Amino acid sequence: MTVQNERIALLVGGGPAPGLNGVISAVTIEAIEQGFNVIGFMDGFKWLVEGSTDHYVPLTIDAVKGINLRGGSILRTSRTNPTKKAEAMANVLGVLDRLNVTRLVTIGGDDTAYSGSQVYKQAGGKIRVAHVPKTIDNDLPLPGSTPTFGFETARQVGVGIARNLAEDAKTASRWYLVVSMGRAAGHLALGIGKAAASTLTIISEEFGDRKVTIDEVCDIIIGSIIKRRSRGNHYGIAVLAEGLLESIGEVALEELMSKQPGRYGDIVKDDHGHLRLGEVEFGRMIKDLLDVRLKELGLNITLTDKDLGYELRCADPIPFDAEYTRDLGFGAVEFLMSEESTKYGAIVSVVGGELLPLPFEKMLDPQTRRMKTRQVNVDGVGYKCARRYMIRLEKRDFRDPERLAKLAREVKMTSEQFKDRFGKLVQNDPWSR
Questions:
Q1: Which CATH number applies to 7-149+317-363?
Q2: Hey, is 124 helix, strand or coil?
Q3: What is the 3-state secondary structure of 44-94?
Q4: What number of CA atoms fall less than 13 Å from residue 149's CA on the CB side?
Q5: How much is the CA Rg of the chain, to the nearest whole Å?
Q6: Distance of alpha carbon 107 from alpha carbon 128, whole angstroms
Q7: Where are the CATH 3.40.50.450 domain residues in the chain?
Q8: Is 288 a catalytic residue?
């Protein structure tokens, strides 16, 4: 196959994740070895939708040497959606045609995957497309337990921060409320909380299909605080998945935020119609609500909220992600060189050391334009183990008269009053003993 006059292009969409540069480096080196010219589009689809051919850089082996060990993205990234308007997609295809791009590697989450799938579909076979999935949320349905790249690095960095906060909490007798990124699944929050031995972690999946209220989230934390105090410990760390915001719902959030305009940020949506969760100060909201409730119970607790997310996204990749992204980048080029890439565009997956291309049409729901979310398996041993080591109110706390009385004394209640106030937390909790 002669490819001397053909180009492979790369672009990055969505939020950053550790390992982006590793994919860029691996694709560039292997593509050049295969005889391609390689270019990288800056800022995702941002300039392509405008029809501009001025915002790309030639990628050479010297240009990508060593970047696989660095965080961030030398091509930057954006959340521009090229599928919103027919004109925007026409501009994208026009730029690719003028620049003689015959193969495209997109790197991003499922929004970018959908955009890549539409480039493949609307180009009518002229452009082969491989998508390399990334997200620190680990919520894309890759085969088996294969993680998305960036997750392991983000978790490791997050664990280090959480452990430092836990030590500070113990030293200063305070509670930290740590909000971890994770829009649709609690993998990152649970991974950080479990590995850092946090006092408790709350994720959306534990509530199943029932409605989540901010009052219940607050009461779970208060129950943990009371239980810790009954054991002589006046400190702790609670990790909350930011996806709880989605579960609580936009209507409930607007009602809460309207009571103190501006204090908790604004409800904003991105180019793909998703709530920008980073614009809502969830930790501050929970802290304020807890302050009021704790004072009503006669408890003087120092609470500090900490959002944990942006610190994780551009960290230098740990060896796992540095190796993994090299495999993924190589796999993307291998797929684009294969006969299969003339038949379908695909999401690149490496399972057990073998390349496993996942066709767009099998992975993306045509209605939602997204992949099915891989949520935390709350029925599995991993979550069951995590719950066993959390300090939360449990059914046995209410069955044992001595335990119940000890808890009630912390908030100057009778056993019956305490049971009426907090007993509902454990009634429908399948993990409560």
A1: 3.40.50.450
A2: coil
A3: CCCCHHHCCCCCEEECCHHHHCCHHHCCCCCCCCECCCCCCCHHHHHHHHH
A4: 35
A5: 24
A6: 14
A7: 7-149+317-363
A8: no
Residues 47 and 99 sit within 8 Å (Cβ to Cβ): no
Helix %, strand %, coil % of the chain (to 5) = 45, 15, 40
Which stretches of the chain drop beneath a pLDDT of 50?
Answer: 1-2
In this predicted structure, what is the pLDDT of residue 3? 59
Three-state DSSP class for residue 414: coil
Q: Which of 43, 110, 111, 137 is catalytic?
A: 137
d(CA 419, CA 404): 8
Identify the pLDDT of residue 274. Answer: 57
| 228, 236 contact by CB (below 8 A) | yes
How many beta carbons lie within 10 A of that of residue 365, not counting itself?
11
The dihedral formed by the CA atoms of 374, 379, 382 and 386, expressed in degrees to the nearest 10: 110
Helices (H), 123-243: 151-172, 187-195, 214-230
The answer, as to whether pTM is greater than 0.85, is: yes
The Cα–Cα gap between 416 and 14 comes to 51
What is the CATH architecture assignment of 151-314? 3-Layer(aba) Sandwich (3.40)
Provide the residue type at 116 as one letter.
G
In angstroms, rounded to a whole number, what is the distance separating the alpha carbons of residues 316 and 322? 9
Residue 407: closest CA among 271, 281, 275, 227? 227
Q: Quick one: which of 13, 148, 8 has its CA closest to 76?
A: 13
pLDDT, residue 1, reads: 47
